[in-house]
Amino acid sequence: MSTSTGTTQAEMTAWRRDIHKNPELGFLETRTSGKVAELLEGFGLDVHRGIGTTGLVGVLRKGQGKRAIGLRADMDALPIQEANEFEYRSVTDKVFHGCGHDGHTAMLLGAAKQLADSGEFDGTVYFIFQPSEEDGRGALSMIDDGLFDRFPMEAVYGMHNMPGIAAGHFAVRKGAMMTSEDVFEITIQGRGGHASMPDRTIDPMVVGAEVVLALQTIAARSVGPQDWCVVSVTEMLTDGARNIIPSRVIIKGDCRALSPDIQERIESRMREIVSGICAAHGAEGHVHYQQDFIATINSPAETEAAIAAATRVAGAPAVDPDCPTCGASEDFARMLRVKPGCYILIGNGLEGHCGSSLHNPRYDLNDEILTVGCAYWKTLVEQQLPVR
After folding, report:
1. pTM, entire model
2. How far apart are CA 239 and CA 27, in angstroms?
3. Residue 6: its pLDDT value, please?
4. Which CA distances in Å does 161 have to 11, 30, 168, 210, 265?
5. How far apart (Å, rounded) are the C-alpha atoms in residues 348 and 102?
């Protein structure tokens, strides 16, 4: 395995644990972005702050080359109470780096330091530190604030740790790497009343139950088996009580797909189902449908570049070049809609805290993979921006 060792491992671990101990939610990453900016400036990079609220970009140029690429890490934490007991656990109540963004930030900082100190490349690298990935707003905020106009790059690359994959191994695929995520809220307005006299009501619970069951026919009967589609009801809220038939039921949930066409089909069928069932019972129905995340689509040439860099770092047996599509969603997809690029997964481990699911209260990023992720970034830059 070709990785850089020495003080950088200790430094990255210290950076990562400091950020873990002091987590910040989306668009509130003032301490984190300030720390990142100060470190980048100390490495000799030109730093541009306040992009898309709390985002920033570090710029590193070497040689006379005109080519440029972007490397992106996310900085925000989750609204979860951490259950770990180690010394660097979160000091902020109900805020926690339960997805490893602390580690992604540390890896990219390590790569910036190494490339500034000893990197052999010809061109420009833009180190993108993004806010608010978890709610799907940070990438678009940076793009709307001129990210790709102010920092013209030919391609952009991202990386995420993944529990359940051996530590330091890589997984990637061309095309659809991760799914979209849409959220919905269905409001059914009936006529409540006494539970002993249901004939005098329009019971929205009965209507809602029919809607919940009918929503499952979208994936089963409205979308072909060759297309990726998941519709999940996750909440059902009412204003009823033990002996009160409610007047209103609210149904919430989440939908996943791999193409805009399927997203639109899900929304269209959902509206038809709610309208038809409510009409049959004399109730009123309203659907609020929101597309939060689009599908993450890796471009072919950039995926080949990522595979080559990962193979040089970890060896071919540790790189899966055609992994299954991941059912999670990623805000980096917004950047890939504007620029070609690739999003790759790095294994976080199989056991203990490092094997726990992302967003689990006992999850923790594996410090051992920091050098591997850092080496991937450095190798990718020197590969894509070679010295002639």
Report:
1. 0.93
2. 34
3. 46
4. 19, 23, 9, 40, 32
5. 13
DSSP 93: T
**Predicted pLDDT at 4:** 43
Residue type present at position 294: I
Q: In terms of C-beta distances under 8 Å and separation of at least 24 residues, what long-range contacts does 192-197 make, across chains too?
A: 192/239, 192/240, 192/244, 192/245, 192/246, 192/247, 192/248, 193/244, 193/245, 194/243, 194/244, 194/245, 195/242, 195/243, 195/244, 195/245, 196/243
List phi, psi (to 5°) of 98. -95, 15
- Residue listed under structure tokens 């100060």: 38
The parts of the chain modelled with pLDDT lower than 70 are 1-7
For the stretch 16-75, pLDDT in tens is: 999 999 999 999 999 999 999 999 999 999 999 999 999 999 999 999 999 999 999 999
**Residues 192 and 238: beta-carbon distance below 8 Å:** no
Round to whole Å and give the CA distance between 218 and 229.
Answer: 8
3-state DSSP call for residue 386? coil
Beta-strand ranges (E) seen in 305-352 are 319-320, 341-349
